[in-house]
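step=encode ok
step=design start
structure_in=
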């Protein structure tokens, strides 16, 4: 006979109570609720909440040009002779997606050692990560009697673009959402584009400013001697140095080769100084902290410049060796500027400059209209489904409607609890779920009707109805759930939103149909000693 042990009743009640608690912030202001209660409702997507839409692109010539510039440093090292202090004299020039190496000094026989130079370059020309084992990243060929051409074959270009796009996506996410709490969506488009959707962001120009920075952070020793600065300002720059400026420091002569680079920084955050003014705090990793200590010990009483994208952010004096790797940048920052700079430093250097192709601002008014339309459609759908079920199945139809209401509550509770983002297609998924939620009830009720007509008692008819309809209902819902899973994994943006609500709705509808409706039916029969139900 149908039995509901106490533990099952407790489980049902706890599940429904959890759904109600998690769904409450969607209809009630929970800001004053106790600490253990949820405060926020379902996260709304860009199409419902409003915000900024940006389409961005990284260009192949920028990505490959940057890679070639890094390779040029490797080439310089490779061409240093092992038996002499003099390197192979050469000039390397990057032009778009190729690099030309021109030898400037002949060997003892008066010939330019082109073949030997190519052999040395090949020693540092290894395969790209993800490329063919043993393959070469660059194609190195003789371009003339005294020149070498370095180019990028198509397979290497594709791998470079894939790697650059993946790194760019990570850096964009870290800059826009450094704490990982904003419900931003970053979607790759093709091999070179990204689409950013930032719900609730009112200022697209701030996002563009945040993302347009290269994010190259370096620590450079400063030459403060008046004669060197005067000569540099006159156009004669000391070898190994360059003249750059900052908003608070003016022009300074800094060493070209940095002591510490962005990869030595572990974390960065916005903080406040002793006067409660915004500053930027960052911590170096173990390797960076060691280099920072050695640099400050060897350059006591000198200044070092903290440079971001060729702009000096700060240039403090080194009074004593600094251990521990904790550094701060002070200046005339606003709170927002300090937060943005900390996000840029922490995220790291962009592999290529972002080009902005499309920009849209979605107003919250349009989102509110969409929500209201979705609510109206949901209410109409529930009323029509409820009317049909009550007319067709009488008392059991009322139980089905009650479980349908529990289903909607559980859907919103699950969306809130999982931190999912609700979009307009997601609302469509909920409305579809409302229509599908009673399918299981219809199959069970029809089976109960058949069992009663065959002469079974009411309790055995209900038990047989649920048991015999189970396999059919599971088959139908599992296949739909698989389809929703594929849509979620392979889709993007609106498709993911639809698949998420559909998948959650399938799970909750099976639970409410088989557990809640059945429980209500059993409680009614046993409480009122009902012998027959009009189905």
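sequence_out=
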């Amino acid at each position: 006979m149908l039995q509901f042990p106490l533990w099952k009743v407790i489980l049902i009640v706890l599940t429904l109570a959890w759904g109600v608690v998690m769904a409450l912030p969607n209809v009630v202001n929970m800001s004053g609720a106790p600490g253990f209660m949820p405060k926020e409702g379902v996260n709304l997507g860009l199409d419902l909440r409003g915000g900024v839409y940006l389409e961005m692109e990284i260009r192949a010539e920028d990505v490959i040009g940057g890679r070639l510039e890094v390779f040029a440093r490797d080439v310089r090292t490779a061409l240093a002779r092992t038996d002499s202090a003099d390197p192979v004299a050469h000039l390397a020039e990057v032009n778009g997606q190729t690099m030309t190496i021109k030898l400037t000094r002949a060997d003892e026989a008066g010939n330019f050692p082109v073949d030997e130079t190519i052999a040395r370059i090949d020693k540092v020309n290894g395969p790209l990560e993800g490329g063919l084992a043993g393959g070469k990243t660059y194609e190195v060929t003789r371009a003339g009697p005294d020149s070498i051409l370095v180019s990028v074959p198509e397979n290497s270009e594709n791998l470079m673009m894939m790697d650059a796009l993946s790194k760019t996506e990570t850096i964009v996410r870290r800059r826009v959402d450094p704490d990982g709490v904003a419900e931003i969506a970053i979607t790759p488009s093709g091999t070179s584009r990204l689409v950013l959707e930032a719900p609730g962001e009112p200022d697209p120009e701030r996002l563009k400013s945040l993302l347009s920075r290269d994010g190259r952070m370096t620590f450079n020793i400063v030459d403060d001697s008046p004669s060197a600065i005067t000569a540099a300002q006159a156009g004669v720059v000391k070898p190994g140095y360059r003249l750059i400026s900052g908003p608070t420091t003016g022009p300074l002569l800094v060493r070209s080769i940095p002591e510490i680079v962005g990869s030595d920084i572990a974390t960065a955050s916005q903080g406040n100084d002793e006067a409660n003014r915004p500053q930027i705090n960052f911590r170096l990793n173990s390797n960076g902290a060691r280099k920072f200590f050695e640099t400050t010990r060897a350059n006591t009483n000198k200044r070092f410049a903290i440079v971001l994208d060729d702009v000096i952010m700060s240039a403090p004096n080194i009074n004593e060796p600094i251990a521990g790797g904790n550094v701060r940048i002070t200046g005339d920052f606003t709170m927002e500027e300090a937060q943005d700079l900390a996000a840029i430093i922490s995220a790291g250097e962009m592999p290529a400059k972002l080009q902005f192709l499309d920009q849209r601002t979605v107003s919250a008014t349009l989102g509110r209209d969409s929500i209201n339309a979705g609510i109206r459609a949901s209410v109409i759908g529930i009323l029509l489904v409820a009317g049909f079920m009550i007319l067709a199945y009488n008392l059991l139809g009322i139980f089905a409607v009650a479980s349908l209401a529990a289903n909607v509550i559980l859907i919103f509770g699950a969306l809130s609890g999982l931190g999912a983002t609700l979009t307009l297609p997601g609302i469509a998924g909920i409305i579809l779920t409302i229509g599908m939620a009673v399918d299981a009830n219809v199959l069970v009720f029809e089976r109960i009707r058949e069992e009663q007509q065959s002469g079974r008692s009411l309790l055995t008819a209900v038990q047989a109805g649920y048991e015999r309809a189970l396999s059919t209902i599971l088959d139908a819902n599992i296949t739909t759930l698989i389809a929703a899973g594929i849509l979620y994994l392979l889709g993007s943006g609106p498709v993911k939103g639809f698949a998420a609500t559909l998948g959650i709705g399938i799970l909750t509808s099976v639970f409410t149909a088989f557990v809640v409706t059945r429980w209500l039916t059993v409680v009614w029969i046993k409480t009122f000693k009902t012998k027959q139900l009009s189905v």
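step=design ok
step=annotate ok -> The mean pLDDT is 81.
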